[in-house]
Amino acid sequence: MSDVAPTAIGRSTLLRVAVAGNPNSGKTTLFNALTGLRHHVGNYPGVTVEKREGRLTGAGAPVTLLDLPGTYSLSARSPDERVARDALLGRMAGAEAPDLTLVVVDAANLERNLYLGAQVLELGRPVVIACNMLDMAEAAGLRVDCAALSAALGVPVVGTVGTRRIGLEALRASLLRPSPRTRPVRGWRLPDAIETAVGELARTLMELRFCDAASADGAALLLMVDHWDAAPLLPEAEDLPSRVRDEIAAARRQIIAAGTHDLPSLVVEQRYAWIGRVVQRAVGPTSPGAAGRERISDRIDRVLTHRVFGALAFAAVMFLMFVAIFSGAEPLMGMIEAGQGFVQDAFRTALPPGPLCDLLADGVIGGVGAVVVFFPQICILFLFIALLEDSGYMARAAFLMDRLMQGVGLHGKSFIPLLSSYACAVPGIMATRTIENPRDRLATIMVAPLMSCSARLPVYITIIGAVFGASLWLKAGVIFAMYVVGTVAALLMAAVFKRTVLRGPRATFLLELPPYHLPRPGAILRAMWDRSRLFLTRAGTIIAALCVVMWALAYFPRHPTAWSEADRRAKARLSTAGLDPAAVARGAEVPDEVRADLKRIRDEAAGEQLRHSWIGRLGHVVEPALRPLGFDWKIGVGILSSFAAREVFVSTMGVVYNVGSGDDDTTPLRERMRAARWESGPRAGGPIYTTAAGLSLMVFYVLCCQCVSTLAVVRRETNSWRWPAIMFTYMTVLAYVGSLAVYQVGTRLGGGLS
Amino acid sequence: MTARHDGEYSLAELPLGREGRVRAIEVGAELRRRLQEMGVIVGTIVRLTRIAPLGDPLEIEVRGYRLSVRRADARGIHLAHDPAGEALTAPMAAPAVA
Ligand SMILES: Nc1nc2c(ncn2[C@@H]2O[C@H](COP(=O)(O)OP(=O)(O)OP(=O)(O)O)[C@@H](O)[C@H]2O)c(=O)[nH]1
After folding, report:
1. Chain B residue with the nearest C-alpha to that of A228
2. How far is ligand 1, taken at its centre, from the CA of residue A145, in Å?
3. Is B26 on the interface with A (CB under 8 A)?
4. C or N: which end of chain A has fewer Cβ atoms within 10 Å?
5. Mean pLDDT in residue range A19-36
6. According to the model, what pLDDT value does residue A55 have?
């Protein structure tokens, strides 16, 4: 290796640009256009705020771009805002302040967009402003003069239309223009007494190297305003140096003594007053009467937020999304499962039989398959979410649903994550990222797995088949009832969470309703892919690992004789049929009845192995606890193995009842279940799968958190094991109590007799 | 709470499609800061543009964009006289958004 490391040229010549802007300003559009496909998505350390970095396109352009979260302000009151502020101040772990900040503003909405712009300018570091959405401004009857804006703000302003790539070259040139750049200064003043106090705080910040000299004034102002009210406004206590804290408190006393009791309001008002003057110099009306786009949005809204049509349209969109996730992913999931089977077979033929082969084929490939099989559903959900967000309908959905969700203390934005959880809680939980308030988001995450997901369906169908017979109406009715149980439980638990552990000041609901846009396929596919991929990388590894663990629990310890016995019996069966075992192993023809016998022998060995394994033993251990719910140890084994994933219940029960696991046809299993009798205890000899026990088991599956994927995703999304632990505990308790109640009440009402 | 005078009312009482000038914001500290940062400050003109089908939340126009606030919060946003000088007793069915 040579000594010339790339870093030797790196540092000094690589220009680091941060991209800031309001939500819906077109920041992502410009970022993508500037970086092309060369960017990667990750996370800021410690928070679930998406972090996107990329390289400016163009031959060897020595510029990296960092996309900051879209925020309305730099006050650090939400994780997004905290990240944006800290990144701009160079207070993010492992990253200095950017060399240049690109502020994207929406020309059609200039005043509010320039509020964030003003805060960035006050940080005193070089800024370039992209005045985006000039087409929208024009459609709204506004003519924005970028040169005048630049003169008023003291920094370069480039007019752009992100979607049509207009102004992109000028913007690129502006980013590449060599230093030195002018440093902006605050364009407005506060009363002298306040300026003095802020100035003192700024000097302290400089001394402590809290930020560099240029940013000190802006940072001092931000800190003063953020810490003016009592602390609870901040999401979590900020670890400021104690000297800074003292200095803030001193400045506060000084300012109050000078007669200002509400500094934050004064600061906001001064900023907006200054912005008003800037905008007046740069914006004028176009020709009178030119006002198209806003009107179109209003006309669409008159239908889409209408009392009747709006509700119908919303129901239709949700139904479509639900059907797409539910059934659209089916063929792909079938293909993934087939592919998985193919790879497993390939391993089996390539490797000598034994634990290593089984570990790779069943444990590892099975575990990876368990992750990948979710992928189509996740992609479809994120496709819909990207479509809803890009078009502007997402905000309307929250607007429509907020009243309903308020009842249980949730937010309009909780609706879509909860609805998607009917398909699968994993994408549902990932979709909660659109909820800014951390408490609302957590409450939504915590109840999402109660929504009856598609993995529970095979379980319901098997149990219903064993208990209720084949009546279509009864079947549909029971399944519907399970969905109702799950939904009601989710809403009740949300209310409980919001009143206990997640209690806090009433969440603010303040939502911008951006004008509708025609969604662009490229941007949507891009957004879908970026988020779906995160699922594979963030949750996939944990899920696969836990699946291997579950596999091992069912695989070890090995039964001492079952397999050799099965081998002996199989050979014996073949020789009675006059067949040569070696020839059969090479693929010789086997008559059907011999094949069926061989399968039975294999299934019996598998059953013995499972009963002998750790999980089988655990089933016996937990039986006393499960009896009051109406479950025997075999159901216990089914439940325990379901902790990897619920649908495993069906295949495990197949193995437990010696009918094998691989069949799509569960008739033999259902017959065995119907015939199952208690071996001991007060009900000895009586059927196990009574109506009460069947309902109890289904309620257990509705309420219990038997899904390592969900827990892994919660771990990732909340960044701690605390919330998955709480989720697992409360749901297990809920499931136990719920099943207990159903079984005990059910048997007393006579359901146990049927 | 501030005493109410004639011609003063809250955003929640504004007839659909009408404008008012913000006189005072009396809501929780966090919401107050957010509203201010989003441009709803004393002196700003707001217009009620839409009401959600279930009666809550409201959609207002402020500084040229649309913002949704809950009715309960809108009660804390006090408005001064209607800048257009229109009488407040105008029928509720007045044409909404042109
Ligand atoms: N008419 C028009 N639409 C634009 C322009 N730039 C972006 N858009 C559209 O505006 C919408 C929002 O753009 P995004 O790039 O997603 O905005 P953002 O600022 O990243 O928004 P967040 O992702 O919410 O932070 C999308 O539908 C874009 O297609 C523009 O210059 N003109």
Report:
1. B29
2. 21
3. no
4. N
5. 91
6. 87
Q: Which residue of A has its CA nearest to B63?
A: A111
Q: For residue A528, give Cα distances in angstroms to A255, A377, A481, A567.
A: 49, 12, 33, 50
Amino acid B91: pLDDT: 39
- Best residue of B34, B35, B37, B60 to probe chain A, by most A CBs closer than 10 Å: B37
Nearest to A233 by CA among B72, B31, B37: B31
Q: In chain B, which residues have their Cβ closer than 8 Å to the Cβ of A514?
A: 65-66
User: What is the DSSP code (8-state) at residue A704?
Assistant: S
In 3D, which of B42, B38, B74, B45 has the Cα closest to residue B58?
A: B74
pLDDT of residue A66: 92
Q: Which residue of A has its CA nearest to B43?
A: A269
Query: Is B45 exposed, middle or buried (CB count within 10 Å of its CB: 0-12, 13-18, 19+)?
Result: middle
- Is B71 at the interface with chain A, CB within 8 A? no
- Whether residue B78 contacts residue B10, with contact meaning beta carbons closer than 8 Å, is answered with yes
Taken in order A615, A616, A619, A621, the sign of the CA dihedral is negative
| Residue B83 distance to chain A (closest CA, Å) | 19
Beta bridge partners of B45: B21
Q: Supply the residue whose CA is at minimum distance from atom 8 of ligand 1.
A: A26
A628, amino acid identity? P
Q: Cβ of A509 under 8 Å from any chain B Cβ?
A: yes
- Class of the CATH domain delimited by A16-176: alpha beta
Closest-CA residue to A742 (of A448, A465, A463): A463
What residue spans define the domains of chain A? 16-176, 192-271, 558-612
Instruction: Extract the tokens encoding A98.
Output: 């950017």
In angstroms, the CA B12 to CA A321 distance is 34
Question: What's the confidence (pLDDT) of residue B47?
Answer: 93
Distance CA A326, CA A710 (A): 18
Structure tokens at A753: 């007799």
From the list A233, A301, A399, the residue facing B29 with the nearest CB is A233
If pLDDT is split at 50, 70 and 90, which confidence band does A496 have?
very high
Interface test with B, best of A75, A394, A509 (most B CBs within 10 A): A509
**Ligand 1 pocket by C-beta < 6 Å: which residues?**
A 21, 23-29, 70, 132-133, 135-136, 161-163, 390, 517, 520, 523
Q: What is the pLDDT of residues A147-169, one digit of tens each?
A: 999 999 999 999 999 989 999 99
Per-residue confidence band for A5, with pLDDT thresholds at 50, 70 and 90: very low
Residue A585 pLDDT > 80: no
| Residue in the structure block whose two tokens are 């064993």 | A466
Report the 10 Å Cβ neighbour count for A373.
22
Distance CA A639, CA A524 (A): 40
Distance CA A458, CA A155 (A): 62
| A614 pLDDT more than 80 | yes
A74/B contact by beta carbon, under 8 A: no
Please tell me the pTM assigned to this model.
0.78
Taking phi over 0 as left and psi of -120 to 50 as alpha, with beta for the rest, A687 belongs to: beta
Residue A376 has pLDDT above 60, yes or no: yes
ipTM of the modeled complex: 0.83
DSSP secondary structure letter of residue B15: P
Cβ-nearest to A268 among B37, B52, B53: B37
Minimal-distance CA residue of chain B relative to A299: B97
pLDDT tens-digit readout, A734-751: 999 999 999 999 888 864
Take residue A396 and report the two structure tokens written for it.
């309307």
Q: B9-83 belongs to which CATH class?
A: mainly beta
DSSP symbol at A268 = H
Whole-number Å distance between alpha carbons of A708 and A28: 33
What pLDDT does A272 receive? 96
Is residue A126 within 8 A of residue A20, CB to CB? The reply is no
What order do you get walking across the sheet with A157-159 strand by strand?
A: A39-43, A50-55, A63-67, A15-21, A100-106, A127-132, A157-159
Which of the four pLDDT bands, split at 50, 70 and 90, describes residue A584? confident
